[in-house]
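Tutorial sheet, problem 5. The four components below are modelled jointly, 1428 residues in total.
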Amino acid sequence: MATMKAAIFVEKNRIVLDEKPIPDIGPADALVRLTTTTICGTDIHILRGEYPVAKGLTIGHEPVGIIEKLGAQVQGFSEGQRVIAGAITPSGHSNACLCGCSSQDGPGTLHGFKAIGGWKFGNTIDGCQAEYVRVPDAMANLSLIPDNLSDEQVLMCPDIMSTGFSGAERGDVKIGDTVAVFALGPIGLCAVAGARLKGAGTIIGVDTVNTRMTVARQLGATHVIDFTQGNVVEQIMAITYGRGVDVAIEALGTQSTFESALRVLRPGGTLSSLGVYSSDLRIPLDAFAAGLGDYNIVSTLCPGGKERMRRLMEVIASGRIDLAPLVTHRFKLDDIEAAYELFGHQRDGVMKVAITP
Amino acid sequence: MATMKAAIFVEKNRIVLDEKPIPDIGPADALVRLTTTTICGTDIHILRGEYPVAKGLTIGHEPVGIIEKLGAQVQGFSEGQRVIAGAITPSGHSNACLCGCSSQDGPGTLHGFKAIGGWKFGNTIDGCQAEYVRVPDAMANLSLIPDNLSDEQVLMCPDIMSTGFSGAERGDVKIGDTVAVFALGPIGLCAVAGARLKGAGTIIGVDTVNTRMTVARQLGATHVIDFTQGNVVEQIMAITYGRGVDVAIEALGTQSTFESALRVLRPGGTLSSLGVYSSDLRIPLDAFAAGLGDYNIVSTLCPGGKERMRRLMEVIASGRIDLAPLVTHRFKLDDIEAAYELFGHQRDGVMKVAITP
Amino acid sequence: MATMKAAIFVEKNRIVLDEKPIPDIGPADALVRLTTTTICGTDIHILRGEYPVAKGLTIGHEPVGIIEKLGAQVQGFSEGQRVIAGAITPSGHSNACLCGCSSQDGPGTLHGFKAIGGWKFGNTIDGCQAEYVRVPDAMANLSLIPDNLSDEQVLMCPDIMSTGFSGAERGDVKIGDTVAVFALGPIGLCAVAGARLKGAGTIIGVDTVNTRMTVARQLGATHVIDFTQGNVVEQIMAITYGRGVDVAIEALGTQSTFESALRVLRPGGTLSSLGVYSSDLRIPLDAFAAGLGDYNIVSTLCPGGKERMRRLMEVIASGRIDLAPLVTHRFKLDDIEAAYELFGHQRDGVMKVAITP
Amino acid sequence: MATMKAAIFVEKNRIVLDEKPIPDIGPADALVRLTTTTICGTDIHILRGEYPVAKGLTIGHEPVGIIEKLGAQVQGFSEGQRVIAGAITPSGHSNACLCGCSSQDGPGTLHGFKAIGGWKFGNTIDGCQAEYVRVPDAMANLSLIPDNLSDEQVLMCPDIMSTGFSGAERGDVKIGDTVAVFALGPIGLCAVAGARLKGAGTIIGVDTVNTRMTVARQLGATHVIDFTQGNVVEQIMAITYGRGVDVAIEALGTQSTFESALRVLRPGGTLSSLGVYSSDLRIPLDAFAAGLGDYNIVSTLCPGGKERMRRLMEVIASGRIDLAPLVTHRFKLDDIEAAYELFGHQRDGVMKVAITP
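Model answer (structure tokens):
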């Protein structure tokens, strides 16, 4: 049986590169030979045991590669094509998918709705920090890479670009809106770019790391606030002349950022939450106007599926945005444990790493 | 100077009927002679000092009456016409109004956004538990009562019908949705009616008072749950075969109802909050799927303005709904203190009272 | 090879009952044994050669039946279950499906968008006026019938209920809207019901056949206009006090109904078109306010897929609506030619026929 | 009585500069002293008698100026402030305004809906090609110009920027959409900018004038097609690999552009019409998929009101877009007849003229 190298979750604080069988595929699946992938903040949560996955699971959910083999039922694609798949791989045929909520796809309940059910790679099935990955429901999930785009140019599409943009989309950013983005990691930076892409006027980024704040300006932030240099809420209210923001995007997953995001909203505004939280959240009575403020609080899991990926690559191909600068470090798959070491500790100004098998 | 009788907030736990001058009106205002009004749960919060208003203010925000006098600038109406005005009286010309958020109208800030700013009657200006009331921005707020509708038939339009329906509207109830409504007071009952009006299939009402549960069934609830008879979340999950509800409407304003509403949502569902809260809210981590459930939490202040009122009366006139049964007791304005006594203690199965000056 | 009876398009003006092989199924398909089906107005267009299909094709797109056999890849269903499938059978995995436009699904073009591509039964593949039908993409399209609903109660779900309701949904009917429905055939009647279900106040039906006008009133029309008794536009403007309607639903497919629907719209209103047209349409300059009226004209193909079907059956199960009265005549499959004869000539007050193999 | 200079419609083909009294203002109005204005394509329609206005009316609907005087009821502004007002001046208090359709504001009918009713300047009341203009409903319509923006930088906000952007907004352009814009006059160019601002990927501009095509590329077009160099529809289908566009924006007002816009739509796509038509339109049966294509056709009148203006200026202030290059020629008000001569004949590559009193 042919084997491959794969980054495997062994136990808390141990993800190691090991040999595994190359995946078998079913009739609706594809086997993709990976050419580039990356490590996500969520993988660090997995590494630390904060998000539970099965021991022995291959980690990773951001695949760029080449179709190695197609299941008997898969039409419209051919072997050898360059493709990506989203971090979230909806089936297309669940009730959740069919009512427009494909990230919450999943077979777990009678009617096909299951929270986070659409996230399969490196969560409920083997992921893509490996030489090969099985892509389920291939017809819904394989998306051809335009010839003129490199692997690194599309590497952000499967997760952080889709997630970050969705922060602006679910916040329903409109032309001329004022938007604040709390935390400028890769997701927050993509949220800045997404807010810009949707027509926001004033875009306020909040962080304290200089390199991130600089990139935020490059991607569209008109103002950047260092939260260590004074009260964030007061600073934003001053920038907005006391009006508050139309949309506040939370991109970290803490009480502090969530609460600040709520406090800077204008009445009728929207808090668009992207962060993965690790404890209960509190909504202060005054910040919520006792329930009478016409507020909206929305959370979003990364949208996936081939049409989403096609659209994101279309934006890149049109030259509207370039996220390649987020790739600050490159590793061979053989050195992925070193990559985890660097990325997990956020050393050396790392934003995203490119891993090449 | 001509005087009138009016229910006035004197101090905590004291609202009394007293004599006051009949209001002067400005060029954009109307003076309305009240023929029927009512007491709202919010007025009880005011009575108890839980919601602060100025001493001496006339209470009440649900006016039905006759135009007594029009300001010099008011066109399109004439004296003697039967009218209602919404509890919320948007100006029409604030930035909030002009971007579709008219309940959050208000002059308080530079750009015209202020939480709850659209609620003026019995909050920031004299209200309508009186013989006369000044209606500000009359052209935006007076709405003619169709001849074939009685005062009591339209008495719910200014607040509870508009608020309750907005719970279903802001929850974006769709044809075939499953909806749960937590607490079946007047607002919750109108939310049931609103969910039905927007095409929900299964509608689950939650309360423990028999009369309310009975009225809920009359207004469209397909299931009614007594929260004292077992775990509410489990009961709703059983009714929905483990799927959860598409929209959960909170109509009380407590942690318990808010949290249960969140827990019964399907992934991607919407918690539509109508209650007035009196303390911070907690969002449990699991109920929020750690931020990855594509949830929506929206709060709403009663929509007002003459177009809203016209539409609500249109629904009543078309025979789609009859809320008159909610009026369980009738009082003269002279006896309003007794009405507060009854309503404040929820005696004698009271739902809504009609007050006639 | 086992055979079955099926209604086959032979040539213009000839649909005959004949013997055909029972369909083979692929791994993603289901074979359904039909228990009830019906004839649609579109089938009459096919019969008359106005809508082209392949000779030898089995006609019919409204299946109610029992799962006879499941493809190897189909999960979540079992043989013997009672099911319906929509007239439109989206794959779930095309780009069209994945961006929320599943009726326009189809393999015909590079990116998976093709007009009417989602309509397969009795159009591009064999339909269901037969003893058995192959349901493609079964996981996306089979929908379980609740035990307490009869075949006839759900017989309208696959097409006319879904189509008629979509007229109100795509018109975005809101609480208190005024709606006009032009032509009260089965689709128009379902549009009336849909407008009512979405909260319209005034609903004006337009036709000239008494039985249809009577059923329209039963399903929610507050006014019914006989277009032979005076100018339709003038009558509707009179009913609406010169204001016009918020939403006009066209349910026939002629210049006359289309144009009248446009002329009765208030500025900013929506013409929701359901009819199948057979010639070019003209938009009169004045009716279109020279392009400055903020009008919306939307057309819709019947929404399908199992989630849509589940929701429609949910509405029926909740007792909100009963369309069974639309079934005015019943035939055995053996007598389907007689059924075509009756339905095609609209004899004997026929609305819908039930065909039982 | 103080007089001023104003460009007046005398009769077909004659707009002349004449003396008129400086306007009186009512309590809700403002008098604005103009500092810059411009001529719109619509004014040319008026000049040619194609759009009827009263003889003696002052033309012009794009005001930039300084508050000279405020009506007694106007709050929140002070004399001497630099302001713009939109071409459309909604009252804020009509039913149309209160249901979100403020461009169709107007007192003309019982319920306050009237096509084009919100367009008053240079249409139903005196316009702003003059030294002074009366702004009705000043509180809803005056919008302060940020200090750092020049007159010419905001000169496009009142009409062409608002109109052009609305083409993209009403077309609901989404991230990654493919958009075609038919005709690249000032409105079409702003539609290109609007499509870009809302996140379109591929943007295809259609025209034949080189300078316009060049500016279109600067404002965001990824492709430009010369309609004289081959079949437009075929060219666009080739660029989109046979898929068609998600949104087609019509910015001229002819059968040819309208029909081409419809023909390049993907199934489910939207034709967003901005042009002012001068004859009936024809919808070809095949282009409309016989009514089964899930198409949307929307028309839009320029959105106005102070919040809209604030947002457009916010976009300019944030540096997202610079429309000043559209101003190709400058004239004194005294020379406005020469400006009409130049602009009306589209001489000398004129795009927009700036007129300074």
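Marking note: Residues 164-299 of chain B form a domain with the Rossmann fold fold (CATH 3.40.50.720). Full credit if you identified this.
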